[in-house]
Amino acid sequence: MAYTHMVLENCQVSPPQGSLPTASLPLTFFDIPWLGDLHVKRLYFYEFPHPTHHFTQTILPTLKNSLSLTLHHFFPLVGNLMCPPPPTKPYILYNNGDSIPLTIAECTINFNHFISNHPRDIIEFDQLVPKLPPIHISNETFVIPLLALQVTILPNSGICIGITYRHVVDGLTSIHFMKLWASIFSGKTCLEKFLPHYDRDVIKDTNGVEAVLLDEYFRMRSSWKDFILGNTNALSIDHVQAKFVLNRSQIEMLKKWIFSQCKNIDNGSSLPKHLSRFVVTCAFTWVCFIKAQDKIGALNSSYVDEVHYFVFPADCRDRLEYPVPKTYFGNCLALCVSEAKKSELVATNGVAVAATAIDRAISELQSGPLKGAERWISDLMNLLKLGCMCTVTGSPSLGFYETDFGWGSPKKVEMVNQQTKNISLTECGDEKGGIEVGLMQTKSAMDTFSSIFEQSLNFLN
């Protein structure tokens, strides 16, 4: 597809001058597993039927000013993650005068092309994704920038707001940042529900998890110089990204089918307790993913009893024995791991098997969200070595489509996937109760997955 992409302005935005002193923010054990070069890329597409000059002259000044005010409240994101050599714990440092990069660009790709669900070249999305400043080393300390933003005008049709942030915050915190910015820009009141809570004392490390995770972190940090500084995050030009939608009626149909199939598993002794839209969507997608990978020869076809893992984060703010505010700034995620044999997942009742496995992980989470927390890093490293893992980012409960800058709800929210074994989840923008599943694959692998996804839905019908 022929198109042009032009950067109109590169600028730096900071909190209002002199409004904040230099400050540091300690991390908790919830943050440690996510340290390093882990980052999230998200794009919000809005209808905006105006030319570029209208945006730059009438919208951009207010957008910058409202961003500055938002950064005043979310000042740690303007700073850097500081990772000194052991035994000093990593922390976030904001220096008075720090700023974040904001890129203003113009792109001539058709707006409807971006907001559709069909496979689109990952290179096209990359033009819209803001680039984080490079990591550098100062006095043996890794200095890691945390946030970058980009606003891209698609003339006479739309606006794309892109955010890239490092995982010193989880999805809920990043959503609160975007919603506060949108609210300040559009002049809305009731901002309190998005203002971050910084008190680290609300997180209690009663089991000594932090010391164990810090040990693991320092071991990983010893290899950062070669891994992180040499990482160019190069994109594969033959990869595409697509979205697959399960609407509310399809999800209800899946729930009924899974429940009926589970009656035949272990004589009905393991009926799922948490057959939510999240569980059924993940189960269905996991099975379609395994079948597609098997069909293209990406799995060990000779070993049918090979165990596969489905890994997803779970917000712990309302699951701990002590209260944690909904607007707590940082990470407050537990790591949940489901497992099932390949032979079971590709069987006729594979979706029911997957749902039961995911349900079991959720039951373990509810019985003790911090059980095994000291193994979060080591478990994840072991699963990465095995390779038989599918991971989840995002959640349909975060309210991505409620981020309104005054132009209406986003027409599409895209989590730009960086791994082929990762799926992203958002609520459906077109229908309440539905879920959008995002996936990045090679073109041929995506065709295979799409075919299996559609055939499986038709089979259930």
Keywords, please?
32% helix; globular; 7-stranded mixed β-sheet; 461 residues; 18 strands; 25% strand; 6-stranded mixed β-sheet; alpha+beta
Architecture blueprint of SSEs:
Elements: E1 5-13, E2 23-26, E3 39-47, H1 52-73, E4 80-83, E5 91-94, E6 100-107, H2 111-114, E7 120-121, H3 122-126, E8 136-138, E9 141-145, E10 147-154, E11 158-166, H4 171-186, H5 209-221, H6 224-227, E12 239-246, H7 248-262, H8 277-295, E13 307-315, E14 333-341, H9 342-345, H10 350-367, H11 376-386, E15 389-394, E16 412-415, E17 422-427, E18 435-442, H12 443-460
Parallel strand pairs: 6-10, 13-15, 15-17
Antiparallel strand pairs: 1-6, 2-5, 3-11, 3-16, 4-5, 4-9, 7-12, 8-9, 10-11, 12-18, 13-14, 17-18
Helix pairs in contact: 1-4, 7-8, 7-10, 8-10, 8-12
Structure description:
The relative contact order is 0.15. The chain is of the alpha+beta class and 461 residues long. The longest helix has 22 residues, at 52-73. The strands form three sheets. A seven-stranded mixed sheet has the order 7-12-18-17-15-13-14, sandwiched between helices. It has twelve helices and 18 strands. Helix content is 32%, strand content 25%.
Helical run tally: 12
Mean pLDDT: 93
Which strands sit side by side, in order, in the main sheet? 7-12-18-17-15-13-14
Q: Which consecutive residue ranges, at least 5 long each, have pLDDT under 50?
A: none
Q: How widely separated are the two ends?
A: 36 Å
Number of strands: 18
In this structure, how is the largest beta sheet organized?
7 strands, mixed
Listing every helix as H and every strand as E from the N terminus to the C terminus, the arrangement reads EEEHEEEHEHEEEEHHHEHHEEHHHEEEEH
Q: How many whole angstroms does the radius of gyration measure?
A: 22 Å
Helix- and strand-based class?
alpha+beta
Share in helix? 25-40%
Strand content: 15-25%
